[in-house]
Amino acid sequence: MYCGVMPTEVRLVQGVAVHSAGQGLGIVLLHANGGDHRDFAAVIPELARTSRVHAIDWPGHGQSQPMDDATALGFADLLPGVLEALGPGPFALVGNSVGGFAALRTAIARPDLVNRLVLVNPGGFTPRTPVSVAACRFIGSPGLAPMAMRRLPRLYLRRRTPQVRAAQERAVEASRSGLQARAFASLWRSFADPGHDARRGIEALTVPTLLIWGTRDPVLPWAVDGRRAARALSGSRVVTLPCGHQAFLETPAEFLREVRAFLDEPSGPSG
Questions:
Q1: What is the pLDDT of residue 92?
Q2: N or C: which end of the chain has fewer CB within 10 A?
Q3: pTM for the model
């Protein structure tokens, strides 16, 4: 849909592959478990027209080195150091799923590094019940993880576009890598940990926040996780879109319209 070139400038920052393009306001894109920076391919060229865009590969994903024990909290702890190494901030963080959880934790702990926060179906708002804990541990079991890597994108990406098909094919390829399957499984198990709670300390959030939720996401449904996030982020702007887990991939034009309007504001609502 959008013309432009994906980033060709790649460097390792604390073992994390950072793919950069453009000049201007710093925007950092943080993908979901099992994906990589290419999940944002439909929106990077347009964002890079006026911004310096950094799309990362989480440890154990894409071109990044693995962590000994990949966890959602570990990614959140890693992110501030990566931002500091990217140069002068603060940055606008765009985080999806576990990327949204890490972005939110960073905005709370290090508001000096963040000037805008865009959360796309972020993790950490699922009610902690015996069923949800068991599901995370089941999907995160080493024997099941490769199959889950292949099947889940076909479940939670609800649009049928060339970009979506490409992401689903990448998931199949990644499932064949023992390294990436182990990272995927470890992250899923960490979602069952009590510390995977995005509401913890959220009253200290001062960064302007945009919450975008795909209402057709069956993994993090709007009726449960989305409404819980909206209540917790009571001062944020909330936008729902008729798609699944990744609005930037499934409905890029609508996503860009909302994000551009938010980023262009002189000041935005804060959570």
A1: 98
A2: N
A3: 0.95
Residue 4 lies in a domain: no
Report helix, strand or coil for 14: coil
Compute the half-sphere exposure of residue 199: CA atoms within 13 Å on the CB side of its CA: 14
Q: State the residue range of the domain holding 88.
A: 9-264
Long-range pairs for 139-142: beta carbons < 8 A, 24 or more residues apart: 139/185, 139/188, 140/184, 140/185, 140/186, 140/187, 140/188, 140/189, 140/190, 140/191, 140/192, 141/185, 142/181, 142/182, 142/185
**Domain count of the fold of the chain:** 1
Share of the chain above pLDDT 90, in %: 91
81/76 Cα distance (integer angstroms): 10
Mean of the per-residue pLDDT values of the chain: 94
**For 147-184, how does the pLDDT look when each residue is reduced to its tens digit (9 = 90+)?**
999 999 999 999 999 999 999 999 999 999 999 999 99
Whose tokens are 């992110």? That residue is: 79
Distance in angstroms (rounded) separating the CA atoms of residues 268 and 257: 15
- Measure the CA–CA gap between 169 and 70, rounded to whole angstroms: 23
Quick check: is 17 in a domain?
yes
